[in-house]
Design goal:
Shape: globular
Number of strands: 3
Order of helices and strands: HEEEHHHHHHHHHHHHH
CATH architecture of the domain at 144-323: Orthogonal Bundle
Strand content: under 5%
Largest sheet: 3 strands, antiparallel
Radius of gyration: 46 Å
Length: 331
């Protein structure tokens, strides 16, 4: 039997040099792969960061404004950067904020004079008179802040306060027109419209002092003529109305200022007589504010036929003060 040939397999033996070369190639491939993967990862991170950063910026840019939209009839809005204002049409107003808020020269002059003439420091001697409040305290009608407030509210709304306001308003209108005959008639009626001798002394002495100081320090064209038209006695409310009209000061603020001065003087007298502290005195003045405002409005529209007083107790107080044994005030 013939012998069968057995195939032989050639065994390749790797030399040390080849082994080193293969290891170097594998190492280079691995390093390249790692670098590539690292680059991919870094690119992804950068992309995510950019997206995250850009998203809020886009949201902020596209977000609707939080400031409410102005209506067409809304008042002008002042800008934050300058003193100019914008009108309702959106156009900037050339008038600066300070000038826009300021009052006119004539208004400033009128306010200055009213505050001076009706100030407690204006020397008409008002602090010397109590309008019968001294007797009311002596008789026990006024004993504290509440009773003083009630007494003065009646005097303002239904007594001498309202009547003085009507005389002031009509004297102001007559002097502004001018109506010579009407001004004289008002001055004469106001001088006769007092219930007692002390009340006559109070209003005429203050009126004369007001006129004298106005002539000396605040004289103007036409004032002397208006004073001469009154003929004789000029009581305090007529004097205030006449002088303010000649100085072209509007009637309404003059009347309100007069009532404030009158009420303040009455409270000052009551505070010394009761006595009251400064805080209680201011509380009384605050509580009388609506009475003063309402009385001034009535006096502005009242006619001379509306004159009248219903404060009989206050009128009696001014009469009995003449014979009061101990007195601090002249009325």
């Amino acid at each position: 039997m013939p012998a069968t040939a057995v195939p032989t397999r050639r065994i390749h033996t790797t030399t040390p040099r080849e082994a080193r070369r293969r290891m170097t190639t594998v190492s280079i491939a691995m390093v390249t792969t790692i670098i590539t993967m690292t680059a991919i990862i870094m690119t992804s991170i950068a992309t995510m960061t950019t997206t995250t950063t850009a998203t809020p910026m886009l949201m902020t840019a596209n977000k609707a404004p939080t400031t409410p939209r102005r209506r067409a009839a809304a008042p002008a809005v002042t800008t934050n950067q300058s003193s100019k204002v914008e009108t309702s049409s959106g156009e900037p107003d050339a008038q600066p904020r300070g000038e826009r808020d300021a009052i006119s020269k004539n208004e400033a002059a009128a306010l200055y004079r009213l505050m001076t003439w009706l100030s407690p420091s204006f020397p008409v001697g008002a602090f010397s008179y109590s309008s019968g409040i001294e007797w009311a305290v002596e008789a026990g009608d006024v004993v504290d802040a509440a009773s003083l407030r009630d007494w003065l509210a009646a005097m303002l709304a239904d007594g001498a306060g309202f009547c003085d306001g009507v005389f002031l308003a009509h004297a102001h209108r007559a002097a502004s027109s001018p109506e010579d005959a009407a001004l004289r008639a008002i001055a004469e009626l106001a001088a006769a419209f007092v219930p007692s001798r002390e009340r006559q002394l109070e209003t005429s002495a203050q009126g004369r002092a007001f006129i004298d100081i106005a002539r000396a320090a605040w004289n103007c064209d036409g004032l002397d003529r208006m004073i001469s038209l009154c003929g004789g006695t000029i009581v305090y409310p007529v004097a205030v109305g006449l002088v303010s009209a000649v100085h072209a000061i509007p009637l309404a603020p003059t009347l309100h200022g007069f009532f404030h001065a009158l009420t303040s003087n009455w409270i000052s007298a009551g505070a010394r007589l009761v006595p009251l502290g400064q805080t209680d005195s201011q509380r009384v003045l605050a509580m009388l504010e609506p009475v003063v405002v309402a009385t001034a409005r009535r006096a502005l529209t009242a006619t001379l036929d509306d004159l009248g007083s219903a404060t009989f107790r206050a009128d009696l107080a001014s009469m009995r003060h003449e014979t009061q044994y101990t007195r601090l005030f002249r009325s």
